[in-house]
Structure formats: structure tokens, C-alpha cells
Amino acid sequence: MTTLQRYALFQIPGWLATIGACWVAHLWFDLPLWAGAGVLVLLLAKDFALYPWLKIGYSTTARSGRDALIGASGVVTQPIAPEGMVKISSELWQARSDTALAPGEAVVVVAVDHMTVVVRGASDSRRHP
What we know:
- The protein is α+β, with helices and mostly antiparallel strands.
- It has helices at residues 3-29, 33-58, 66-69, 122-127, and strands at residues 73-78, 83-88, 91-96, 106-113, 116-121.
- Helix content is 49%, strand content 25%.
- A five-stranded mixed β-barrel has the order 1-2-3-5-4.
């Protein structure tokens, strides 16, 4: 399913509610049908005009949690032999590695084990995808 289809499916309940409200307003208050149709057209135009700004929220490619960490780069802050600390973005993480790593070395996250990231030296990651 495309992002546009997903977005449109989420808009359908609002469109149906608007149709229902306009129909009730037509029956009870003699709202002309052309006015109700105009309200619906304005609602549809608003929804599709906002789509370019909202589509990232309906996208399935957004990564979060542990998936977002895998592949992230960081820097060793405390020696890793086999466990230590790394800084990824602005966060400190408990880290584990098969090889000893010194403070200041660049690392790449290859896995996440609970609250511990498993890292490799940045030069090792290029050789072993």
C-alpha cells in the first residue's frame, strides 16, 4: 500500500462524518445540497493540500527504536574490552565489542542487545558488512 493510499484511508472517516453532517443540516435546516458539496470539496482540498507535509507520518520507512540504532556511528568514550561506553548522537550507551577499542575511536552499531549496543570499529565495519 502506498503512502498516499494509507493517508486517504485515514481521511475517509472524516469525509463520511462531513457527508453525514451536511445531510443532517440539509434535512433539518434546509442547507442547500450545493453548500454541503462545497464543504466536502473544501475538506478534500485541505486534506490533499496538507499531504506533502504529513506524508512522512504515514510512511512506513521511518525507523525508530532499536532499528534506528543499527548502522548509527558513534565514538568510544570509555575503553571497550569487551564492554565500555560509546556516545551515539548526544546519548551515552553501554557497548560491547569483540575487539578492544580505545577512547576516541569511531564505531558503528551492528546490533542491539536489550540496552547494550554491539559495535565494531568504523574501519572494521567497512570490511565486514
